[in-house]
Amino acid sequence: MTVTTAHPAATLTLDPLGPAFGAEVLGLDLASVTDAELAAVRAALVDRKVLFFRDQRLDEDSQVALGRRLGELTPSHPVVAGVDEAHPEIYAIDSADNGFADVWHTDVTFMPRPPLGSILRAVTLPESGGDTSWADGQLAYESLSRPVREMADQLTAVHDGNREFGYYLAQRRGGKGNVWDGRTVTALDPVEHPVIRVHPETGRKGIFVNPGFTSHIVGVSDAESRAVLDLLYAHLTKPEHIIRHRWRLGDVAMWDNRSTSHYANRDYGTTHRVMHRITLRGDRPFGPEGPATA
């Protein structure tokens, strides 16, 4: 089944992957997309949360150029260098360099301003395996029981990047990472974000904790923190909240980092898998009580 989604200046043809989550955009060439078409893609991204584009002709230069048309690009990562000197914005997720991403996570939530969204391009793929799945944090929140929603609305969680990326920062010369939000990263200080994030464009609430970077919930016991997080993780990753993509060379995926989590299957043994990711600069997450005034 295909549907169309309209923007004031352009219309896209979408093949939905779920009733309200994920879609393949049909017949669009990202290397020559018009401004009107790109505005429609941006609107569809907020609505469908994850978009896929088959048979694309992007390389490093055109991937970066596309990202710049969608928003302000971040460096490749707070502490990991870009793929090369000419493309400091591209983060290479390379299985030959421990690049697996085989834990549910939302990109870079261990920084005060996590990315708005990500654009991922398949570069080298195994013959089979290496699929990626995404979970819809908004649908998951809305399908929680009301008492659990009301409890989660009040909670704040700590996100810590040291577990995954402290080693990379220590290996950088001088212990200095990249410039992120105007400052050089020299330490991965844990940050606090609301457990339930309000999307700044739609106002919808979504679960905003993830096993990759969330360490604990603030102001509760360790046992309570583990129990609440385990409950939310199990609910977030129920099959009805998930879509799964089987990669082909030429595929590009875009996702809204403010409303989703994702997981890359590590089921391809020693076969090589390389993906190139860029991220769009985001804002500071806020919860049901609204943005901080300070």
Structure description:
The protein has 294 residues and is an alpha+beta fold. It has one domain (3-280): Clavaminate synthase-like (Double-stranded beta-helix). Helices cover 22% and strands 27% of the residues. It has 6 helices and 18 strands. The strands form 5 sheets. The protein has an 8-stranded mixed sheet with strand order 1-2-3-4-16-6-18-5. A 3-stranded antiparallel sheet has the order 15-7-17. β12 (196-198) and β13 (205-207) form a beta hairpin. The protein is globular, with a radius of gyration of 18 Å. The protein starts with a strand and ends in a 14-residue tail after the last strand. The mean pLDDT is 95. Keywords: Dioxygenase, Iron, Metal-binding, Oxidoreductase. One of its GO terms (molecular function) is dioxygenase activity. This is TauD/TfdA dioxygenase family protein.
Q: Structural class of the helices, strands and pairings?
A: alpha+beta
- Unreliable parts: none
Largest sheet: 8 strands, mixed
CATH superfamily grouping: Clavaminate synthase-like
Query: Briefly, what CATH class?
Result: Alpha Beta
**How many E-type strands?**
18
H/E element order: EEEHEHEEEHHEHEEEEEEHEEEE
Quote the CATH topology: Double-stranded beta-helix
Radius of gyration: 18 Å
